[in-house]
Design goal:
Helices cover 54% and strands 19% of the residues. With 448 residues, it is an alpha+beta fold. The protein folds into 3 domains: 141 residues, PAS domain (Beta-Lactamase); 53 residues; 148 residues, Heat Shock Protein 90 (2-Layer Sandwich), CATH 3.30.565.10. A 5-stranded antiparallel beta sheet has the order 2-1-5-4-3, with helices on both faces. The longest helix is centred in the middle third of the chain and has 51 residues. The relative contact order is 0.06.
Length: 448
Amino acid sequence: MVLIFLNLFCTRLSQRLFYENKESAMIEKCQLASDELSTLDVWNNATVSGILSQLESLRASRLLVTDSTGLCIYDSTGDALNRFVLLPEVLSACRGNDVFTWRYHSGAMISRAATPIVDFGSVAGCVYITEYDTAQGAVIDLLLQTILRVTLILEAAVILFSLIYNRHFSRRMRAIMDSMHTIQKGNYNQKVSVGGNDELTLLASEFNDLTERLQTSEEKRRRFVSDASHELKTPLASIKLLTDSILQNDMDAETMREFVEDIGSEAERLNRMTAKLLSLTKVDGQPLQESELIRMAPTIRQVAKMLKPVAEKSGVTLELNLDEDSTVLITRDDLYQIVFNLMENGIKYNRPGGTVTVTLTRGIDLAKLTVTDTGMGIPVEALDHIFERFYRVDKARSRQTGGSGLGLSIVRAIVSRNRGEIQVDSQVGTGTRFHVTFPIFDTEVDDA
């Protein structure tokens, strides 16, 4: 449509230029003849012919001279001599107007012009000229044909380019759609390679990033389901084995009581594991709750108070070194769970007579919580895995202490969603130290 518009515009513009040039030339010829004829005292065919024969520039297809009434005094063809000429151009010129008309027809440019002959301020007649110009017509015809050819060539080029681009675009888009259909079937290894450097390339890159994240999430989900099934199967198998032993064997009351206590212990371990799984799912799926500005020290003391009986039972001493002026933006429940899990692990995996030291310090921009124990320590090769779900350094000891391998995963998830960081360093046989940092917020807070 744009090319058609340009074609029409160029055609009209070229015709307009020819029109203006022709109008100027024709009116000039008419005025030249009019000026010469206005000097005549007597108007007749002989005197007019004598004047016009001297004007070599008045070459025209036909030339008429009339008086003010439109009566033809001179006609270069002789057809209208001594007859009234009622052409529109002649009538308009006899009223004192310069007139020019033009049209292009059958390869020829047909031009008509007329001007009045003014004698002492009044119209004495008019000069009318007609030109049938095939040379100018040929030029116009050639120009129109050239514009048409150029338009057709450009249209063909545009259509060809559109078809090629559409085919190329469709092929690349089909590659992306096929990959989407493959992913819908559960194959997250699918990658898209469309080439180029445009929006589709960017879309393919984002699509590949998405498939990688989906693949990672799917692997984590499968691993989680596998690990959860394995961990839940162990206490269930123990419960089934104990119940089968009770049903298949005659036992005295004391032995049966021991078996029932073991069943209760396994059921309790199963209950703790289920609670931690629910807690971890809640942390992963629940949006961040509205945080509050609190000082960390009161919450840490509350956790220490709750775990003191457990520590005394294990022969572990709790020590607190707390900076009171450490204010962070966090929910109280999240902070409680972080401190509880870290201190509980410090007690569980400590040795009798050991110590768990909780230190809270305030820096310029950060509040740092450090939980140090004097327990067995963690091997270097295990440090990169301790925050993974169901990972346990010593599986046998973890089961004895009721560990499920989920506590540190919960801690890291809660710390991350509260804009904090957690790190660990440990030495086998000496102990382990966890460092948790949060941004400081200075304002008036409620210690309750």
